[in-house]
Structures are given as C-alpha cells and as structure tokens.
C-alpha cells in the first residue's frame, strides 16, 4: 500500500470515528433532555403520576436508537475514553433517576417493598416473626432499611417509591464500572458499543427505574462474585455467595454451580487453600444471617421459606413469554406436577452443565478457563429454567442475559454479545408489556400474536446459544485447548 493510500484510509477512519462520537453524544444529550422534561413536568402534566404509556414509549425509543447504533457500528472497536465513560455514567444515572421519579412502579411489588422497608428500618431482626406476607429474604431488606435510615439521618425528602428504586439505580451504574474492571483485568478496554449496550440496556432501565424490582441489585451481586473470583478475593467471593443466597430465592437455581466449582477445585485440582477460604467465609456469613433473622425457635425456617416460595405460583407460567405462554398456558394451574416438572428441568440443565464441564475443563489449573465454564453453566441453567421451568415470571431471563454478557467479556466472541443483546430486547418486550398492564391494575397478559412471537424467539435463542456453546467446546476439544 502506498503512503498516499494509507493516508487517505487513515483520514477516513478518523472521520468515521468522529461521526460515531457525534452520534453518541447527540443520543446522550437527547436522552438527558427527555429526562429533564420528565423530571420537571411529568407530575404537573400527568396528575395521576402514572404516565405509563408515554414513559414506556420513551424508554422503547431509547432502546431502539441505541441498539440501532450498535447494529450500524458493530464492527468498530472504538474504545471509550475516561471522559466519555464519566459522561455516560452521569447521563445513565439521571435517566434512571428521572424515570424512577416519573412512574411509581409495579403497584403490588412497590407496595410490598414499601411496607417491608418501613418495618425492617425499625425492627430488622424480627420481621419473619410478624404475621405478614413476606416472600423476600433478608439480604435485600437490609439494603432497603439502610437506605431508609440514611435518608432519615440526613433529613432528605424523597418519595418512598423512588427510595426503593435507588439501590437498583446505583447497582446499574456499579455494573458498568465492574465490567470496565473486568475488561482491564483481561488486558482490554471497554468499547463505546459495550458501554452503550450495558448502560442503556432498556430491560435494566425498565426493571430498576420503572418497575422497582431488585433484579439489578442481584445482577450487581452476581458480577461482584465474578470479579472477586477473577481477582482472587476469596473471602469476598464466599461472603457474596452467602449474601446472594439470602437475597434472592431464585439464586438457589445457581448455587449448585458454585458447589460444583468448589468440588472441582478441592477434589480434582487440589486447590484447597483458596476454596477453603471461600467456604469458611460463606459458612460464617450464612450462619450469621440465618440465626439473626431466625423466627423464635424455628431452626428450620429457611428450608420452609424456600418451600413456601416454590409453591406460591403453581402455574405453568406467570406472564413469562416462554414455551408455556406459547402453548396458551399463562396463569393455568398445574396441580401436583408443579415441583416434579421443575426438578426434571433442573436435572436436565445440570446434566448439560456436567457434560460441558467434562468436555472442556480437562483438569485445567487455569482459573479463567474454569470461570468461563462456570459462566457457560449459568447461561445454560438461566435459559433452560426460564423457558421450561413452571411458575417463571417475566423478569427472570435477565440473569441469562448477565451470564451471556460475562461470557462475552471473557471470550470477546461477538456472537455472545449479540446473543446477550437479543435476550435483553426480548426481556424488555416481555417486561414492558406486563408493567404497562399492571399500572392499570391488570395482572394477566392475554395471549397475543406479538407476545407469542417473543415466546418463540426465546426458545430459538436458547437453541442457538446452546449450539454456540457446544460448537465452541467441541472446537476447543479438537484443538486440544
């Protein structure tokens, strides 16, 4: 290549990069203006404080614009600067804050969180002795109480609806900061595309800012666990595992992955010292939380709690657009087969996990390789449980998105990033539909063709990603990697 041709191509690349930067900043400024408008005028214009369709429409628009940008510039590896990242973090935080203030959230969930927060902030360790409905573990309730007490101490006026969303809004920002750290640990930098896909993920925005659920906070704990394993913070890893167990009942689906990781390193790799640190710290914090919140003389309260939660929704699906929704079984009672079906699905998921462990690990001492297969196992469990286990809610696919994203961060395989993007978009379509109806006190999603297509797409992405994982495993096996 001649010097002149090289100079022309270099100038063209610089020009394209500048165009990309202009587009990003234009989008972010537009979002900021939208947010400012919602923050200042929504309550005055919409006296009901439930501008549901407009807010959902704006969030959809944000998702479409940003994901369209990703599709257009998906081939470019333009790395984000520190200034751009700080700007994006600020904008992402205030976008969520504005949306959180504009919409009070899912009526049932928000009212439950408000009631539990007020009880726990005054009488934390006796909440499970009170004769009230409660289906959440103490981990998240501690966080709500902490935020409530901080606001009381500083005497700051904030609505309870926004207060219960604040831990998840902060968690969304923390996720991108930890992802940045993971990328640097693996010797790479965060690209502009990756930061946009995470920071302005419409499903995360919907859950943390509009719905008011705890899934973003739980996702942050998952990534914290992953970071602690990557960085050899073994005591932190054990503590985070324990806190996850006492934060979200659904973590029980993923706990066997951690146990398999411990067994593998203890029994096969003889990596005793590090794993013992994790197990001991897990045991200490678990015991502390168990006995601090144990109802009076009820030593078996936690197994009973999990059994109660598992039996609360004996339906094929609870507005989750999965195989049962596609079959017209939304909110249809199962009967005695409820737990039996779930145990079969979970057993199949872990058989697949064990197969991929057997194909890929080859008794490796490489910690990163071990974590890669741990994330693949989480993706398999997340996708299979969401699509085939009964009683699934619309929100639970977000954990499959998280594992897919972390797999991408480790492998830099663009297919996995696109897979994560598809999962999050399908989740957004599911979550936004359910939230939109719930703001009108409608909690049953009728069978519609568009929702049916989302359910089919969820099954297709499950098949595609399992094929991708299997293909990569066999390819690595053939090469002897």
TrEMBL record:
The protein's name: Integral membrane protein
Signal sequence segment: none
TM helices/strands, residue ranges: 20-42, 54-73, 79-99, 133-156, 162-181, 193-211, 217-244, 251-269, 275-293, 340-361, 373-389, 396-429, 449-469
Coiled coil residues, start to end: none
Keyword terms: Membrane, Transmembrane, Transmembrane helix
Superkingdom of source: Bacteria
